[in-house]
């Protein structure tokens, strides 16, 4: 997003008119109007005053979100202690459930293979080189082997798939609405990034709550790498303004 758009969003978020903001900054309303149309920009002193007035950092004021360090992790990487703790929980369950029956030995291995891998999901990272993506197999046995490999491998980066930025043509922010078939249907809507590679391959990446907060800067970073970004539903301005995406995307449903 451009700076003039961010300045306008933050002013409205603070509930101020251009006239009210100008009075607090001891400048003319025309000056504020020029900032918000991109004709001029605030000087450094006014940027500091705006930062204090809106109670946000300069990063949030100038970039639309808090600064995110790279690599930026989306999801959770598997760690050795997590594997051990979850294995012990499954072991304890298998000991207690059959009430010390000989069936413990029959239950433990199948439970370990079927339950443990399901507790870990795919993850990806925004790095300076490109997007690192770790996708696990749908086969529980193979996935368990991959999880152990992730923990023990000294060259973890070789396991993940690196997609250099120069191979990416476009990234689209996509909101997938879920139809609620019953009051018991609690599955949430999904916010995703659709990554279109120059060889026309398509990759879907989940957007975590943490990434939502840093999304304006992530988008700016992608655009600086020469990647086209598409936001058909104009969700980024909503995120910057601190508005609820779900309500916005379901407003038609609420009117029915």
TrEMBL record:
Residues 7-61 form the HTH cro/C1-type domain. The chain crosses the membrane at residues 83-100. InterPro entries: Cro/C1-type_HTH, Lambda_DNA-bd_dom_sf. The keyword Transmembrane helix applies. Keywords: DNA-binding, Membrane, Transmembrane, Transmembrane helix. GO terms for molecular function: DNA binding. The keyword Membrane applies. Coiled coil: none annotated. This is Helix-turn-helix domain-containing protein. It comes from Isobaculum melis.
């Amino acid at each position: 997003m451009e700076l003039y758009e961010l300045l306008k969003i933050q002013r409205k978020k603070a509930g101020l008119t251009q006239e009210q903001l100008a009075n607090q900054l001891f400048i003319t309303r025309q000056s504020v109007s020029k900032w918000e149309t991109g004709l001029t920009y605030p000087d450094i002193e006014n940027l500091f005053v705006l930062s204090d007035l809106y109670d946000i950092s300069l990063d949030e004021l100038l970039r639309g979100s808090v600064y995110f360090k790279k690599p930026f992790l989306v999801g959770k990487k598997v760690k050795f202690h997590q594997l051990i703790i979850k294995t012990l929980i499954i072991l304890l369950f298998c000991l207690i459930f059959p009430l010390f029956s000989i069936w413990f030995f029959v239950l433990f291995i199948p439970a370990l293979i079927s339950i443990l891998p399901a507790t870990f999901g795919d993850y990806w990272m925004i790095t300076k080189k490109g997007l690192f993506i770790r996708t696990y197999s749908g086969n529980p046995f193979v996935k368990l082997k991959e999880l152990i490999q992730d923990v023990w491998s000294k060259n973890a980066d070789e396991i993940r798939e690196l997609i250099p930025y120069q191979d990416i043509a476009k990234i689209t922010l996509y909101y997938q609405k879920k139809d609620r078939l019953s009051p018991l249907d609690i599955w949430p809507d999904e916010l995703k990034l659709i990554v279109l590679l120059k060889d026309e391959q398509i990759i879907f990446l989940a957007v975590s709550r943490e990434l939502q907060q840093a999304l304006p800067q992530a988008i700016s970073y992608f655009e600086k790498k020469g990647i086209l970004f598409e936001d058909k539903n104009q969700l980024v301005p909503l995120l910057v303004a601190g508005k609820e995406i779900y309500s916005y995307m379901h407003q038609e449903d609420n009117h029915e």
